[in-house]
Every structure is written in structure tokens, then in C-alpha cells.
Amino acid sequence: MIARLQKPAGQVEELIYGQFIEHILTCISGGVYDPHSPYADENGMRGDVIAKIKQLAPPVMRFPGGTIMCQYHWEDAVGPLEKRIRRPNLIWGGELDPAFGTAEFITFCRKVGAEPMICVNMASGTPEEAAHWVEYCNGTGNTHYANLRRSHGYAEPFGVKYWCIGNECYAEPDIGMQNDVQIYVRDAMEFIKWMKLTDKSIRTVVVGCDDEQWNRTVLDKLHAVTDYLSYHHYSAEGGMGLYGPFAGEKALRSKVDDLIGLIGQYPETVTDFSPWYRFPPRQGPIRLALDEWNIWDFKPDETYGLLQTYNWRDALWTASVLNLLISTPEIGMANLAQSVNVIAPIVAEKDGNWYQTIAYPLLHYRRLMTGQRLPIAFDSPKVDGGMVGEVDAISLSAVKRGDGTVAIACVNRDFANAHPLALPDLPAQRVEVLLLDAALPLDTCSAQHCCVREHREMVSFEGSITLPPGSVLFAQFAPISSEQE
Ligand code: AHR
Fold first, then answer.
1. Which end of the chain is more exposed for a tag (fewer CB within 10 A), N or C?
2. pLDDT of residue 479
3. For residue 69, which atom of ligand 1 is closest to its CA?
4. pTM of the model as a whole
5. Catalytic position from the list 13, 135, 168, 237
6. Which pLDDT does position 110 carry in this prediction?
7. What is the C-alpha separation between 471 and 484, in angstroms, rounded?
8. What would the mean pLDDT of 59-83 be, rounded to a whole number?
9. pLDDT grade for 480, boundaries at 50, 70 and 90
10. Which is it for the CA torsion 353, 355, 359, 363, positive or negative?
């Protein structure tokens, strides 16, 4: 297989490495936050889990849902602990622990080095309540909610830039009355007005989905006041055999293409925006926010299959989606759902924590695959995916890093065959290679054992490298001059 590198085409958007925490099972309570744990830090947060998240270095973190957004009233979970309001978690079961509220979320974001992203309750909340949340977080004046934040011990504003206007509001089974798109756009406009009048600088994310008519109506009405169109994707094995999730990834690629076609129909610069709105319109093009993505093998039991164990095949899927995110500048943000315990790369148990397979590509992509995007053209050989038909064997992405080195991330989803990869645009040289694989595609990690093998070596590159079966391979090449580009 031959892959041709093209000229650098803009920076890779770092926000594609974002994550998400929700009040769902043990993601927050017991995962991120557990004041009774021997690992609890001075804020009652799991120091050991925070250290693991820090290694993954998410630049943005979404909270508090997810579907829990439908019942979430932020004022329940701010201020003195004894005055906070504890409610049943109507969506995921158990109780909604108010001890981890807005200020704790911000503290958590600061600890892991992420920008906060908050999703507001459109289902049982009001535009005014959402605006008060913006004021509590970002207010700098001598006003009620800014002063409330100060009275809770936070003199400096939290500076929350990213705000999701509802979550999956189209979902008829969820609480909420905005599953009719006309009602969603009417209400979302009202939320955005209240919130932007409170802080003109915030960036908004509106709800998109698989339904083209929904997306078109949302953008027709809201394109001038929204920065991102959200899209959620969960692939599944779904009984489709070894290659099942890759069919999901193929569907995601095609959906992303459709969405790019759609957002491209709206002007990059908004011109005819009435000054009577009293806040500026969107600046720059609308971008996609893949603000929930992962593999989720849903099961109709009380945990909905959310405590998912990932195998090595799933990690190849994760790497393939990261290649898509790196290669697609129209995707302005992505949030792996979720960070801990619930469909997550990190499992936190009472006596420690460990990485699932999917954490390993995340770690190395975050470390190596930033800088300028190098489009890479190739025609992948196919692999027989059985029930899901033919699947591309190879997925690639490439970047020119800040120090000029070229990094190429290669996924070989063919579990039976190695594939040679010819890179005629790169000169012969010694190359640093990092290979990730596992003994078997369905191998999993546990607290006792990590199935992922990492192998580093310097190899002689003479125009081609070999991609071993079922592997992720990163190759780092010496800086290329602008003539070579
Ligand atoms: O991430 C789990 C759930 O999946 C989220 O709460 C919801 O937004 C999505 O359907």
C-alpha cells in the first residue's frame, strides 16, 4: 500500500482529545470523587485517578451530563455541603450526590489541566436558570450570582467558555419536551439569548443527531448563534463478530461527511445579525463537536452495559477514530465518553485503578499526534469482516510536530496479515517506531495484568515500513524541509 503525504493543512485541533464525566453509576461518585477513599486528596477527589487522567491530558472536560442533564439543577450542588440538596438519580439509578457540584468540577478541571464545558438543563430547567449558572461561573460584577460564587470562596471567575444547549434533546424516551425540533430550536434560542446576554464571550454547542431534517432545522434557526453542532456516536460489537465496531466507525466517517456537507451550507461569517440581540453573532465557521464517542455494547440490564470491558480490538477502533478526528479539520472538538468506570479508559476500584486497552492509543496519540495536520492519501487493502462485509484494513493519520518531526499513526485492523506501507515522500533514515499490540484481538486488561504490549525501537527506513497484524504503530521521522513538503 502506498501513502502520499501532502502539504501541512492547519493545526490539529487539540480539543479533539477531550473527555466527559457524568453523574452516572460510579463515574463521578466513587470514580473521580470519593472522600472516603485512602486515595482521596484534600478535595475528596481520587488523587490516583486524577494522576491517570492527567497522563491522558484531556484539554476539555464535559459535565454534568449526558442524560442526567434533564434533571440537573445546578443550585442544588453549590455552597456549604450541609445545605446542598440530594435527589434520586432518576436517569441512571442511585442518588445524585451534590457534594461534587460546579465548584468541585472546576477544581477537578484545574487539577487535570482541562477547560470546563458545561451542559445546561433544557428539560426541567429554564433559560433564566441557565443564565444564572453562567453568571455564577463567569460573572465579574457586583451581581447576585457572581457574589454567591465569591461567598462560596471563589473570588475569581471560573471562566467557563463552552456551554452545551441541552443534550440529545431529540431522544423521545428521555425526560424533556424538546424532542420536536421546532420546540428545540425555539427553546434553544431562548436559552442562548439569556446565556449570551449574561456573558457575550461564551461558545455554544447545539444538539445535532442522525436525522438530517433535525440538523437542518437546528442550523437554519440557530446557525448565527452557535459555534458547534453536537453529534454523538457509539459503535458496538452488537453480535456482528470481530469486525463489528469497525462497521460503526465506517458509519461514523460517512455521517461526519454528511454533517460537513451540511455545516458548509452556512456562511463562515454571519453578516445580517440584528444589533438588537445585544451580543455578537458566531465568529468563524460552525464546527462539529463529537462530544460523546466510544464503543458501548448496550445491554438492557440495570447498568445498561455501561461498565464495559474493552478488548484490544476496541483499542484499534479507538485509534482509528483518533485518525479520523486528526484528519478532519471540521471537527472542532471531541469528548471521549466517559473518563472513569463508565464506558471508560480508566477503571477505579476501591484499592487502586488501572487502564483499559483503549487508554493506550489515547495516551500515545495525545503525546505524539499534535501539531500541523498532514493530509495523507492512500487506498487501503480490505479485510473480510464476515457479517459486516469488507472493512478497510488500514487507518492512518499524519502530523508535522512543533519540532518539525513528522509523526505517522498507523492502525492495521487485519488480525491475520501484516501490510507493507510505502511512504515515498519521506527520505531514507533511522526512524523511531512505537508498536502497540496484544497477543489476541479479544484480550483485555485487568488490575493484575495489562494485555497491551509496547515495543519501541529505532529501525532503518528505506521507503517502507511494515504494519504487523492487529497493531497500532507510530513512526517518527526527522524534520522535513519546506522543499520536501
Ligand atoms: O454516555 C452515556 C449516555 O449516552 C449519556 O448520558 C447520553 O448523553 C448518551 O446517550
1. C
2. 82
3. 6
4. 0.97
5. 168
6. 98
7. 29
8. 98
9. confident
10. positive
Q: Pairing between strand 429-437 and 287-295?
A: unpaired
Helix or strand run (H / E) with residue 409 = strand 406-412
- Residue 150: what pLDDT? 98
d(CA 67, ligand 1 centre) in Å: 6
Would residue 75 show up in a list of annotated catalytic residues for this protein? no
Is 184 in contact with 170 (CB distance < 8 Å)? yes
For atom 4 of ligand 1, the residue with the nearest CA is 66
Closest atom of ligand 1 to 67 CA is: 6
Binding site membership of 66 for ligand 1 (Cβ less than 6 Å): yes
* CA 106 to each of CA 19, 22, 64, 117: distance values in angstroms, whole numbers, following the listed order: 14, 14, 11, 10
Concatenate the DSSP letters of all residues of 60-120 into one string: EEEES-SGGGGG--GGGGSS-GGGS--EE-TTTSSEE-TTS-HHHHHHHHHHHT-EEEEEE
Pocket test for ligand 1, best of 89, 121, 168 (most atoms within 8 A of CB): 168
Q: How far apart are CA 441 and CA 309, in angstroms?
A: 13
Nearest CA-CA partner of 335 in 191, 127, 219, 167: 167
pLDDT confidence band for 484 (50 / 70 / 90): low
The residue annotated as part of the active site, out of 13, 22, 104, 292, is: 292
Residue type, 451: C
In testing the pocket of ligand 1, which one of 28, 67, 210, 294 has its CB within 8 Å of the most ligand atoms? 67
Whether 457 is catalytic is no
